[in-house]
């Protein structure tokens, strides 16, 4: 059965959105909406990496602290971080103090700079992995896909870290590369409308 839930405003939502108070606004206004901003794309793949082994609520409640600690996830700035900045971040109790994940963000920022130089933008790269067709599987019925495996492999070949297929699939769900809202979720139609308004050639939204 699809993961849906109805709360007191009578709108049917994906069931996970009812799991914590923080989730509701995130589900209704962010999750699954197509994103083409490079900074937000980089932020999301980093936060998904930090989530590994943790709940998304933990990351969501710390998101503003992460943004402050990592210069708003401006990867051109993060790419210049050295060892002193790593040690400083490890002392910051407002974020997840995991050396490997912190160092991965810095490494991935350097790789992101390289990717932009090659592809023009992170958006053009990530959206080139948008699946042409969705399978007949119900929304939210899997944690990886053939495309997430391919994207994960390509990122790893480019030197990115903490970007396994599950992390990448969660990134694809959240950034709107697929519409994985439950079929009866009231947000699904809005997300699909936004996706149709996205011109893939220019990665801009039509009026």
TrEMBL record:
Q: Which residues form the signal peptide?
A: none
Q: List this protein's GO terms for biological process.
A: base-excision repair
Coiled coil ranges (UniProt) are none
Cite a single GO MF annotation. metal ion binding
Annotated keywords: Metal-binding, Zinc
Bilayer-crossing regions: none
Q: Which residues bind Zn(2+)?
A: 14, 27, 181, 185
Q: Does the keyword Manganese apply?
A: no
The name under which this protein is listed is DNA-3-methyladenine glycosylase I
């Amino acid at each position: 059965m699809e993961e849906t839930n109805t709360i007191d405003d009578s709108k049917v939502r994906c069931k996970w959105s009812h799991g914590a108070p923080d989730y509701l606004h995130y589900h209704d206004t962010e999750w699954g909406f197509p994103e083409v901003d490079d900074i937000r794309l980089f932020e999301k793949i980093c936060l998904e990496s930090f989530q590994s082994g943790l709940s998304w609520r933990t990351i969501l409640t710390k998101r503003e602290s992460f943004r402050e600690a990592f210069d708003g996830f401006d990867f051109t700035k993060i790419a210049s971080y050295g060892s002193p900045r790593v040690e400083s971040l490890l002392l910051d109790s407002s974020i997840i103090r995991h050396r490997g994940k912190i160092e991965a963000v810095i490494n991935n920022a350097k790789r992101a700079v390289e990717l932009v130089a090659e592809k023009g933008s992170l958006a053009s790269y990530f959206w080139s992995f948008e699946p042409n067709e969705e399978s007949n599987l119900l929304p939210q019925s899997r944690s990886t896909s053939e495309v997430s495996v391919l994207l994960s492999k390509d990122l790893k070949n480019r030197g990115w870290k903490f970007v396994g297929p599950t992390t990448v699939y969660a990134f694809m769900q959240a950034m709107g590369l697929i519409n994985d809202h439950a079929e009866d979720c009231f947000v699904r139609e809005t997300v699909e409308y936004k996706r149709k308004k996205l011109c893939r050639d220019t990665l801009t939204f039509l009026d």
